[in-house]
Amino acid sequence: MTRIERIIEFLNQQPKDNFLRHALALEYIKIGEDLKARDLFLEILTDSPDYVGSYYHLAKCLEKLDAREAAIEWYEKGMAAAKLAKDNHAYNELQAAYEDLLY
């Protein structure tokens, strides 16, 4: 059984588990399934906008999909969420990626 199959098996038992959905999205990125990854990250952030770790990965995924404006928007949303959560590490990572994309 592959990692993806195992994660899906766990998700069948806990379909809204953000950690599992995030892990599955990262696995999809590894195999070039960027659209599936994007959709999972969007589901996570729609359900749980405070799940700060997914903003960076969603925005990076959008960059790969040539959706620059959407990536910028998600970096900005992520920075706001990180600020609310007082997560300086995540904020700094998001800000650095955001500035790299803009400049």
Structure classification: mainly alpha
Between the first and last Cα atoms, what is the distance in angstroms?
43 Å
| Oligomeric grouping of the chains | single chain
Indicate the radius of gyration in whole angstroms.
14 Å
Low-pLDDT runs of 5+ residues are: none
Please tally the β strands and state the result: 0
What percent of the residues sit in helical stretches (DSSP H or I)? over 70%
Overall form: globular
CATH class label:
Mainly Alpha
CATH architecture name:
Alpha Horseshoe
The overall pLDDT average reads 97
What is the succession of H and E elements?
HHHHHH
- What fraction of residues sit in β-strands? under 5%
Give an overview in words.
- The protein has 103 residues and is mainly α.
- It has a single domain, classed as Serine Threonine Protein Phosphatase 5, Tetratricopeptide repeat (Alpha Horseshoe), CATH 1.25.40.
- The chain contains six helices and no strands.
- It has helices spanning 3-13, 18-30, 34-47, 53-64, 68-85, 88-102.
- The longest helix has 18 residues, at 68-85.
- The radius of gyration is 14 Å and the shape is globular.
- The model has no long low-confidence stretch (mean pLDDT 97).
Entry summary:
With 103 residues, the protein is an all-alpha fold.
Set down the secondary structure blueprint.
Layout: H1 3-13, H2 18-30, H3 34-47, H4 53-64, H5 68-85, H6 88-102
Helix pairs in contact: 1-2, 2-3, 3-4, 4-5, 4-6, 5-6
